Amino acid sequence: MGRKWNNIKDKKAGKDAANSRIYAKFGREIYVAAKSGEPNPESNRALKTVLERAKTYSVPKHIIEKAIDKAKGGGDEQFDELRYEGFGVAGTMVIVDALTNNVNRTASEVRAAFGKNGGNMGVSGSAAHMFQNTAVFGIEGKSEDEILEILMEADLDMRDIMDEEGTIIVYVEPEQFHATQEAFKGAGIEDFTVAELTMLPMTDVALTGDDLVKFEKMIDALEDLEDVQRVYHNADLGE
Questions:
Q1: Residues 6+ apart with CB under 8 A from 92
Q2: How far from the centroid of its chain's Cα atoms is residue 199's Cα?
Q3: What GO biological process terms are annotated to this protein in UniProt (predicted)?
């Protein structure tokens, strides 16, 4: 089930840090989550989840506070949560999650990002059935046995566990995200290299040569769109 989380995350963080787009995306996501309920992560699970994920990407505190303050102040900006599905080269499948205040603009931009890079948008459900909603955690400084013991003591199941260059990657059921996180924190684990809900592909498609170049260009084009929050795919990029 592994997707080489460390390499993927490091590559994306390095790319986004240069233009700060990741901070803008988190600001929008935090604002929407805070406005959907109480602007307090202890009583708003959606907000708590995005804040934990923001922490793993080192989002500055002032970005987080600004977004929450905007929600507290009754900001009137409205965003729709949208999901697009499509296909890339060699039968690859892609899921795009967006937050937008202009549905027509976002749909047009996503369609163009697919079409200009050898892909095409599909209908709802055309790709998502090949992905599995999963919670994933990355933990340093612990062994697999220690992590397994923590999960067993908390009576929590897991889907998979693996060691990625010294970081333990744990996959659990999505509905157990918060319970698992609390179990880890109860065991003294406060920092995670990964702590998020994601969509993992059931099968991977290996890409090489021109197909790999074209696919990466398409993913970059999608991730660079202002309204796009997350992009999932089933390509094995060899990272």
A1: 119, 205, 207, 215, 233, 234, 235
A2: 8
A3: regulation of DNA-templated transcription
Model confidence pLDDT, tens digit, residues 127-138: 999 999 999 999
Tell how strand 194-201 and strand 131-140 pair up.
antiparallel
Whole-angstrom distance, CA of residue 80 vs CA of residue 102: 8
Statement: 131-201 belongs to CATH 3.30.70.980: yes
Q: Which two tokens stand for residue 19?
A: 């233009």
Q: What percent of the chain has pLDDT over 70?
A: 91
pLDDT tier for residue 189 given thresholds of 50, 70 and 90:
very high
Q: In a 10 Å sphere around its CB, with 0-12 CB exposed, 13-18 middle and 19+ buried, how is residue 145 labelled?
A: exposed
Contact 34, 71 (CB under 8 A): yes
The arithmetic mean of pLDDT across residues 160-187, rounded, is 94
With a pLDDT cut of 90, the percent of the chain lying above it is 81
Single out the residue of 199, 218, 227 nearest to residue 25, CA to CA. 227
Domain 80-129+202-236 has CATH 3.30.70.980: yes
Q: What is the DSSP letter of 159?
A: S
CATH value of 5-72 in 3.90.1010.10, 3.30.70.20, 3.30.465.10, 1.10.10.200: 1.10.10.200
| Parallel/antiparallel/unpaired status of strands 205-206 and 235-236 | parallel
